[in-house]
Design a protein that fits this description.
Largest interface: A-B, 40 and 40 residues
Distance between the termini of chain A: 43 Å
Largest sheet of chain B: none
Number of helices of chain A: 18
CATH class of chain B: Mainly Alpha
Number of domains of chain B: 1
Radius of gyration of chain A: 22 Å
Structural class of chain A: mainly alpha
Number of strands of chain B: 0
Number of strands of chain A: 2
Number of helices of chain B: 4
Helix content of chain B: 55-70%
Number of domains of chain A: 3
CATH architecture of chain B: Orthogonal Bundle
Shape of chain A: globular
Oligomer: heterodimer
Strand content of chain B: under 5%
Helix content of chain A: over 70%
CATH topology of chain B: Helix Hairpins
Order of helices and strands of chain B: HHHH
Radius of gyration of chain B: 19 Å
Chain lengths: 473, 114
């Protein structure tokens, strides 16, 4: 057995510690820290890619400290890498690498703890994907949560950023505690914390009300993380105020991890033995479709570009949940491809918005109208990413959505396809509106009412703080 | 008797959630979050409790003496650590809010523009 599966968590955590230790010694030479963080994130991405290739030959399992299960009882803690979990973790690592590379130029000055927190965030996401232990699922959930809350409030110059971070932290923590209650109940019933072992127990004993309640509690916590209506309100607040490289991670992969958790818990712990399959499927499908529609509508009426992208993430999270709700291998495969495509496309969009904010000092669509013309390359990339967000070929989002549609069709739910197309038109259309208006000056220049102008002026004044970041403590 | 701890858990959880929803002060809000988390300690310990059993330290007692479940105690300890981290971070946010904006009212902190 090799230790690659343990290294993907150990490397970012140890590098974070090294950065904390080295930070004060280096003084102004922050490029060393930047390089360390990028190097660590990139090496994790490479290791996860290797693991993902290996999972083609079967799931990889690693028992920490060599505590292997004895007589069918798991006494240790394990990491299990399947193609889904390794793929999602790779996506997280790639996005962290991209975000850290972007930060190289984006922040003129940056605090040491920014690098360390990004790496801890990466370790949390990787651990959440790979863990085979249901209690550790909660621990990783909170670890990535704490890093994300701190990163959201990284630039507390505005009232909004503290409010957004607090809202995010309180909502997600309540979700985590609900999940923990469910985990406690399931442990009380099965006497196991290893997901595979719990699954075996539930498969052998007819599940009762307690198991159902435990399932609901665990799923409720994960739905909050996944920003599913009616638990979606924290996301737009948090994403609008977080620094752009952090938005890439929040939107591109963290929300999806909550939904991955649902799929993981359902397939490997509760599964068919839980019963009520049709009812659960219907509830998830209804929540997913509702989320997709609500997110798309809010996205369309939004003028703050970061909030617009955040609402588009909510809309897509709804589509992912609907895809998971079909409970078919094809639907799940579609969601996996869709998540990967969406994560990369959304990252590209957020980074383009970051460049616009850095150069032009605003993320208000109305104010920016026509002012993005000098940013030619950014405009082209933004437009291409908008095509990807609208689920058009040749992007992965098109392929993933195609799988979900096909699976829904086979399920006798052809209307799901129609809803998805409508949502894609609304979210893709809003982003196209931004692309055309900001970068090419298409359409009539929107009338600047005084309130908007005042707001734009305020945002301009805030840019300095954006690009410089707070002083090192 | 067996269900009593779980009634307490539901009560603590309900009180904490009510506090979070109605809170108008950040420190009060954070305390309510701690109350919500406290329900998980009671739940975990309630799950592992065995009537008439001893603490799980097999040093000077027989191997077959009934003992309470040590796993849930480890879980509760981990839970405490998580709580300490989250609470410290949230209180730091509250301190920042007070320092920079002179308010601890969540409503007054809202200045998001869309």
């Amino acid at each position: 057995m090799d230790h690659l599966l343990a290294l993907v968590v150990a490397v970012p955590l140890l590098t974070a510690v090294a950065i904390f230790a080295a930070g004060p010694l280096l003084g102004d030479r922050r490029r060393v820290l930047d390089a360390m963080a990028i190097g660590a994130a990139a090496s994790v991405a490479v290791m996860l890619a290797v693991i993902m290739v290996r999972t083609a030959g079967g799931d990889q399992v690693y028992w920490f400290g060599g505590f292997r299960p004895a007589r069918g009882i798991a006494i240790g803690i394990d990491f299990e890498a399947g193609s889904l979990s390794a793929g999602l973790a790779s996506l997280a690592a790639v996005l962290v690498t991209a975000a850290m590379t972007f930060s190289w130029r984006y922040f003129r000055r940056v605090a040491t703890y920014y690098h360390a927190l990004m790496l801890i965030f990466l370790a949390g996401m990787t651990g959440f994907c790979l863990t085979g232990d249901i209690f550790d699922l909660f621990v990783w959930f909170e670890l990535m949560g704490v890093a994300a809350y701190a990163l959201t409030a990284y630039r507390p110059e505005e009232r909004g950023s503290l409010q957004g971070a607090l809202n995010f932290a309180v909502t997600n923590s309540v979700g985590a505690y609900l999940s923990l209650s469910g985990i406690g109940l399931i442990y009380g019933r099965t006497g196991a914390l290893n997901m595979a072992q719990i699954g075996t127990y539930i498969g052998r004993h007819p599940p009762d009300g307690l198991v159902t309640v435990a399932f609901l509690l665990i799923v409720a916590g994960l739905l909050i993380k996944g920003a599913i209506v009616p638990f979606h309100f924290w996301l737009a607040d948090a994403h609008a105020v977080a620094p752009t490289p952090v938005c890439v991670l929040l939107s591109g992969v963290m929300v999806e991890l909550g939904l991955y958790g649902i799929a993981r818990v359902y397939w490997s712990v509760f599964g068919l033995a839980l019963g009520h399959r049709a009812a659960i499927s219907h509830v998830f499908l209804a929540l997913g479709v509702l989320t997709a529609v609500v997110g798309a509508l809010f996205c369309f009426r939004e003028r703050h570009i970061k909030r617009m992208l955040a609402f588009s993430t909510i809309s897509h999270a709804g589509m992912f949940l609907a895809g998971i709700a079909l409970f078919t291998p094809l639907g799940l495969a579609g969601v996996a491809v869709y998540v990967a495509g969406h994560g990369l496309v959304k990252a590209a969009l957020f980074l383009c918005v970051g460049i616009v904010l850095h150069r032009l000092g605003s993320v208000n669509e109305t104010w920016l109208h026509g002012r993005g013309r000098p940013l030619r390359v950014t405009g082209v990339v933004f437009t291409l990413a908008a095509l990807g967000l609208a689920d058009l070929p040749p992007f992965a989002t098109f392929l993933g959505k195609g799988y979900i549609d096909e699976s829904a069709w086979a399920h006798g739910l052809p209307w799901v396809m129609g809803v998805f197309v409508a949502c894609a038109i609304l979210t893709g259309g809003s982003v196209f509106r931004v692309a055309g208006g900001v970068f090419y000056g298409l359409g009539d220049a929107p009338s600047e009412d005084p309130a908007m102008a005042a707001m734009a002026a305020e945002e301009t004044s805030e840019t300095d703080s954006t690009s410089s970041g707070p002083r090192s403590p | 008797m067996q269900y009593f701890p779980f009634v307490v858990v539901a009560w603590i959880l309900g009180v904490g959630l009510y506090g979070i929803v109605t809170s108008r002060h950040l420190v009060h809000l954070i305390m309510c979050l701690i109350v919500v988390q406290s329900s998980t300690y009671v739940l975990l310990l309630g799950v592992g409790y065995v009537t008439g059993a001893v603490a799980p330290y097999f040093y000077d007692i027989g191997v077959h003496t009934p003992a309470v479940d040590p796993v849930v105690q480890a879980l509760a300890l981990t839970d405490v650590v998580v709580e300490a981290a989250v609470t410290a971070l949230l209180l730091a946010f509250a301190v920042q809010a007070h320092k920079r904006f002179g308010t601890l009212d969540p409503q007054e902190l809202v200045s998001l523009k869309g």
